[in-house]
Amino acid sequence: MSLLPAHRRSQSLFPELSDFFAGFPFFETVRPVMEGKLLRVEDEMADGKYLVHAEMPGMDPDKDVTITVRDGVLTIKAERSERQETKGRSEFSYGSFVRSVALPAGAKEDEIAATYDKGILTVSVPVAETVAPAEKHIAIKSS
């Protein structure tokens, strides 16, 4: 006999705060923690590319996943619809999932590509080598 509920709906821990901060860019990175629907990701730099791997098994990337980039922030959104015919226990997470990550300096936003294989979404962002600006000395004028 299972002690787990048949279906458990996740709700925001702080719905009023979630609504209040919805318009702020910083909030997009905090929102998943507050709403409890966080995509699991790994990121790394490899061969001149910033790679983000997102764990999303059982999703159709053509229908369920959107990837956007704005002001140097990459956002992955996904939606998993609950199956209505399930009569037993379910431990799957359903609903909307989102994750935003800041892109590194030199990211070529126009060349971002994504692939989906065996439940893992990989977003590849080419990164141009950036040269640190030379140190500039400022003259001080005294009166």
TrEMBL record:
Residues annotated as domain SHSP: 32-143
Family: Belongs to the small heat shock protein (HSP20) family.
Name by which UniProt lists this protein: Hsp20 family protein
Organism of origin: Nocardia arthritidis
Top-level taxonomy: Bacteria, Bacillati, Actinomycetota, Actinomycetes, Mycobacteriales
